[in-house]
């Protein structure tokens, strides 16, 4: 389906200029950073000043085909992928009426407040959205969306339903693996009155990750461990650990206050993958900024609190031989996290379409005692 949608976007952009309105927009981010310690790494950076990691360039095309039908495509190249260009978005939309729109194709999954603007750095003040919440690992689905706006008394209401699938790759413990999330169903609802808005999102799906290539130690892969457990008759334990068609859920809440001077944003999320070694993930952030004309300093705090699923192995502690119990326990416990992250930075709008940003990030791992710091600078622009 997605190949058809992509072809439709290209065909529309090339051939519809004479019969339809075509709008071309773009955005880019040129970001650089380095950690402050020689043995530190954070968000893909190390102690060598690097320009490529979070830089990107994108073109968005939208064509109004008439009779309430439109097509949208977004071509994006990321520095982390050597600026290889791919369709980040590619979908058709139909306006059922003034309040209701149906879209189908490759869509942005509406997990977060800034999901629709996730790659558009110019749309927010930070160098990057708070990764404790936003570092989910995937952002798009192939599917259908129903979006409706209403007026509820003095409040503006935005309600969205999504249905679709994800079938691509994701990074897991530094290894690129195949990931599939089927039967994604979800809804988001945002209410706004004046300077204040609140948002809730809930999505469920059926998750499968091919974690077999992931290394637990030199020469020891997750697939090898699961194979050994199967051979000694512990299929039930493998079923409790492997991520195979497991029910998963995402729950998120957000609140924003923006009166033109002060901007306060907070989001809290919970992620669960049942019957797997994936930890239950609870995360949140709070960000406070103040606009002084074109200059906006801000401070934000993030929290990761991921609880390891120790019940997956606790019943086997007395029966499993040590050479099997130790890697099983290590696998499950490795998913725990307790990170405190502070960000201090500013945004300077030096041009009507461009902003310079600088940010200092300090992350404290409460489980290991490790502390990492990152200095980032960048320019975000829209055109």
What is the topology?
Blueprint: H1 2-15, E1 21-35, E2 56-66, E3 69-78, E4 85-95, E5 100-108, H2 131-134, E6 140-152, E7 155-172, E8 175-193, E9 196-209, E10 215-217, E11 220-221, H3 222-231, H4 235-241, E12 246-258, E13 262-273, E14 280-290, E15 295-307, H5 311-314, H6 322-333, E16 337-351, E17 354-365, E18 371-382
Antiparallel strand pairs: 1-2, 1-18, 2-3, 3-4, 4-5, 5-6, 6-7, 7-8, 8-9, 9-12, 10-11, 12-13, 13-14, 14-15, 15-16, 16-17, 17-18
Short description:
By secondary structure, this protein is mainly beta. The protein is built from six helices and 18 strands.
Number of domains: 1
Low-confidence stretches: 1-18
Quaternary state reads: single chain
Q: Please identify the structural class as seen in this structure.
A: mainly beta
The CATH homologous superfamily is termed Porin
Q: Provide the CATH top-level class.
A: Mainly Beta
The CATH topology turns out to be Porin
Tell me, briefly, the overall form.
globular
Query: How large, in whole angstroms, is the Cα Rg?
Result: 22 Å
DSSP strand content: over 45%
- Please state how the strands of the largest beta sheet are arranged side by side: 1-2-3-4-5-6-7-8-9-12-13-14-15-16-17-18
Between the first and last Cα atoms, what is the distance in angstroms? 30 Å
Say how many strands there are. 18
Task: Count up the helices.
Answer: 6
CATH architecture: Beta Barrel
Please trace the helix and strand order, writing H or E for each element.
Answer: HEEEEEHEEEEEEHHEEEEHHEEE
**How would you sum up the major sheet?**
16 strands, antiparallel, barrel
Chain-averaged pLDDT: 93
Q: Percent range for helical residues?
A: 10-25%
């Amino acid at each position: 389906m997605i190949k058809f949608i992509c072809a439709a976007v290209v065909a529309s952009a090339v051939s519809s200029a004479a019969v339809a309105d075509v709008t071309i927009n773009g955005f880019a981010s040129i970001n650089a950073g380095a950690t402050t310690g020689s043995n530190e790494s954070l968000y893909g950076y190390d102690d060598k000043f690097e320009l490529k990691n979070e830089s990107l360039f994108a073109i968005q095309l939208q064509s109004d085909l008439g009779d309430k039908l439109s097509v949208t495509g977004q071509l994006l190249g990321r520095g982390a992928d050597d600026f290889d260009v791919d369709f980040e978005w590619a979908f058709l939309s139909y306006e059922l009426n003034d309040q209701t729109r149906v879209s189908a194709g490759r869509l942005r999954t509406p997990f977060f407040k800034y999901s629709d603007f996730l790659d558009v750095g110019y749309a927010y003040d930070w160098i990057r959205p708070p990764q404790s919440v936003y570092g989910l690992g995937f952002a798009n689905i192939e599917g259908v969306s129903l979006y409706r706006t209403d007026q509820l008394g003095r409040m503006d209401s935005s309600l969205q339903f999504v249905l679709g699938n994800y079938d691509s790759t994701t990074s897991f413990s530094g290894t690129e693996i195949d990931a599939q999330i089927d039967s994604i169903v979800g809804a988001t609802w945002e209410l706004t009155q004046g300077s204040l808005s609140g948002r809730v999102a809930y999505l469920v799906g059926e998750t499968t990750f091919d974690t077999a290539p992931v290394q637990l130690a030199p020469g020891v892969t997750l697939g090898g461990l699961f194979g050994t457990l199967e051979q000694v008759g512990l299929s039930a334990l493998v079923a409790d650990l492997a991520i195979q068609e497991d029910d998963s859920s995402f729950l998120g809440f957000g609140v924003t206050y923006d009166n033109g001077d002060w901007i306060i944003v907070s989001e809290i999320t919970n992620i669960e993958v049942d019957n797997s070694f994936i930890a239950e993930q609870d995360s949140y952030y709070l960000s406070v900024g103040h606009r002084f004309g074109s200059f906006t300093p801000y401070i934000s705090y993030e929290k990761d609190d991921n609880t390891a699923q120790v019940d997956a192995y606790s019943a086997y502690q007395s029966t499993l031989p040590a050479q099997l119990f130790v890697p099983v326990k290590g696998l499950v416990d490795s998913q725990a996290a307790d990170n405190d992250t502070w960000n201090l930075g500013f945004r300077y709008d030096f041009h009507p379409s461009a902003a310079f940003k600088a940010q200092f990030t300090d992350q404290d791992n409460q489980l290991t005692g490790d502390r990492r710091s990152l200095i980032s600078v960048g320019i975000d622009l829209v055109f």
